[in-house]
Amino acid sequence: MIVSAPNVPRQPIRALTSIRGLAAWWVVLYHVRELLPPTMPPMLHAALAHGYLAVDLFFMLSGFVISLNYSTQFARLDAGQVRRFLLLRLGRIYPLHLVMLIAFVANPIAIGLFSAAGRVGERYAADYFLLSLLLMQNWGSTDSLAWNIPAWSISTEWFAYLVFPFLAWLALRWARDAAGALRLTALLLLAFAAICAGIGGSLGDRIETFGLVRCVMEFAIGVFLQRLHAARPSVGRWEGYFALGAALGCFAAYAALPIQDWLTMPLGFALLIHALARGGHFLSAGLGWAPLERIGEISYSTYLCHYFLKDWMKFLFIHPGTRLEPVLLGYLVAVALTSIMLYRWIEVPGRQLSRRLVDPLRPLPVCCPPAAPDARLKPGSGL
């Protein structure tokens, strides 16, 4: 991940890229957790059952990284800069989204031709497909998730990109120093918790109506968290350790106490991102390992292709009496290999094309900032 902000150390950015990859695989395993061996430790089963929380980390991380790369361009709201930003972000997320959406057309065709029921059902409704083409499928006008189900979060992420220039403009004015940035970040976390308390349920509930609010609020938290990071560019190593310890404390509290996820997990993710951005501790160093960074670089492909492959794995290989372990292993390998191919053949060319269109005279960077990816699905949503 190449960043434009000055004096940003490389290792923390590598750690943020790596954590994105691990979160993407948390989502993958969450969606196939029913195939996991029952002999796995109960604690691991419980952790995978909460994989829907990875999307909250994605949204917050996306706001942080997008702000790190682009916020200073919006010290004033210039129409040309806004247009350039949105075209670059569209070039980052749309080519792969479109390819996977087209690939999903095979699903209703297969159901119509080969399924015993022969009925396609509401998951492949034409109006949802059209909304997906426009990246508007989860803006509150639908009452279910359909087609490429994890792409609901890409829809809300696109909405967050649309409002980011204004968010950045506000952050540059209201969070001029560390104290201001800290107050506003804390205020957003409290406001988000209050909204969740008023609505009730967990973070993964009511995605169709709550997903957009969830994304924009957590994206905004990431934006203001980055202003806190920028306002204190040089601090002692203690701050990274303190933030990491506090994040682990939040995660442990949620695991040990009968409390709602929104009470501790968003705060824990904010502290984790801050800790990894600060660096200087064992977790940041470990996540700086090159293979983990590579997993993070292809995580958007992993996120968008895994549900399509899950549908076809169930359709082709899961039958009464099937041994699940070999099928699961083959599925995980297929997701990894498909992610690599989609990254090389779709993501990178699409990104380079958008940059050539927007900045024809600028040299192309090696890589771009990440897009956020999914969350909790309703049971039984297969092919």
Mass-distribution shape: globular
Which percent range fits the helix content?
A: 55-70%
Structural class: mainly alpha
Helix-strand sequence: HHHHHHHHHHHHHHH
- Beta content comes to under 5%
What do these coordinates show?
With 383 residues, the protein is mostly helical. It has one domain. The protein is 69% helix and 0% strand. The chain has 15 helices and no strands. α1 packs across α13 and α1 runs parallel beside α14. The longest helix has 35 residues. The two termini are 35 Å apart. The N terminus and C terminus are likely disordered.
Name its key features.
single chain; disordered N terminus; disordered C terminus
Give a brief outline of the structure.
69% of the residues lie in helices and 0% in strands. With 383 residues, the protein is mainly alpha-helical.
What is the secondary structure topology, with strand pairs?
Elements: H1 10-31, H2 42-48, H3 54-70, H4 79-103, H5 106-114, H6 126-133, H7 152-174, H8 178-199, H9 207-231, H10 237-256, H11 261-278, H12 282-287, H13 290-297, H14 299-317, H15 324-358
